[in-house]
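Budget justification note: compute hours in this period were largely spent on complex prediction jobs such as the one shown. Inputs:
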Amino acid sequence: MRPPHKFSRDIPEKPSDIKRNLSIVLFFALIYAAGKFTRFNFSDLIEGMSEGGGFIKELFFPPDWAYMKRLIEPMKETIQISIVGTFFGSIVAIPFAILSARNFLRMPILTGIVRNFLGLFRTIPALVFAALFASVFGFGSFPGMMALIVFTAGLVAKLGFEAIESIDHGPVEALESSGATKLSILRFAIIPQILPQYLSFVLYSFEINIRASAVLGYVGAGGIANYYNRTLSYLQYARAGSIVLLTFVVVMALDLVSSRIRERLL
Amino acid sequence: MLEIRNISKTYPNGVQALSNVSLNIQKGEFVSIIGLSGAGKSTLLRSINKMIEMTEGDILFQGKSIREAKGKELRLIRRDIGMIFQSFNLVKRSRVITNVLCGRIAYHSPFVTFFGLYPKEDKQIAFEALDRVNILEKAYNRADELSGGQMQRVAIARSLAQEPILLLADEPVASLDPLTTIQVMDDLKRINRELGLTMLVNLHHVDLALKYSTRIIGLQAGKLVFDGHAKDVNDEVLKEIYGRELTSSEVLGEVEDAPSS
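Corresponding output:
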């Protein structure tokens, strides 16, 4: 038996749970409202799943191996689009990242303008850019590359300026006090600190781009997805399945290689 | 060589860090600035190379106004003033020699150094600087492989590579253990003697200041309350600077003479 304890003061009152409980109720209410709004119901889902099973069988069993050989060229194009898009996008990102970092130039107005500009671009999905560029430059891989350049620049610039803002400021101070110019400070105090992170961002955006470029063709922006349109509109499901399968394997493989390299970098 | 004329500094938040401080520093002096945290030691040091802008007064470095200097003129003044820091401020991912060569940047066009193309002579200067602080053998190690004391010596070498005529040291030993502290202070003293390099050092430990300096500056709440020879610093002076008796953290205590390594 524990000896009785005599409290020297009152035990504090338990704070009200009302805020938490209201949050929980609100959360489920929102989910319910969303389901209602989109006319979601479970019987449709189950029905769809059983139909979907048959469809999946039609897609993948057996794959159309002969057709898959014809997909190698467009698959190469898809990979090319994502490599070129990532490469040039990452280069375009550099000046934007530098201009957006609050701790480097210390020109708040310029930084604000560039940041808002970047933010605007990041709200537009790559596929929308692709459709836009396809209508401007015509169908083919060029609008796809352009779309990925813009998308990558926005992403890498954002991650880049955050990296610049999180560097150790000490070396910057040391170089400034030795009479170095801004350009030299960038070169010797900032770049060495963020280089591994920057390379990792480039690879990360490559992983995103390879997935994005696998659907760019759908809006006429080059690469493998062009063939979805062709096969699906002729109801050639086995061929469409082959495209999905090939895309899946290639994306997985590149993703794996890229994330392995990224692990090494950091 | 350095004339501090009635400088004051009020920060934008209203804190007055320095009020009406005047000093003359002669070539070859080893001057320590002591005082409580927040007394204005760092602000005084950083006003000299304009890392902080004074709000009143002026500083003349070799006759040139620090307050008026900007752009290229300021960079050339800064090139002649080395600085070392409590946290060493090395680029940890870069090699030691790359860090030391950073001291040479201000001697060249940024477009030349951008590609790391330093003249042969600069590399010689950098190696000599490393040798002077006895750490030449680490030239090709990455800076993050070094201990704290070694990092501070590399930082000293970097500032020596500037071939400065004044060295500012802002709490150079505050993040070092007592033994390394002695080694780094010995290095600074030796450089002061061998090169005749003028030293202006902020120190937290009063006994270190008394042991190494030829002259002591005491700051109290932004005001200069003592300026004189180390041997003239007595309990009364310390009481004025610190407003109380010293605490044990302000005295380093007895340390065995460090083996020279």
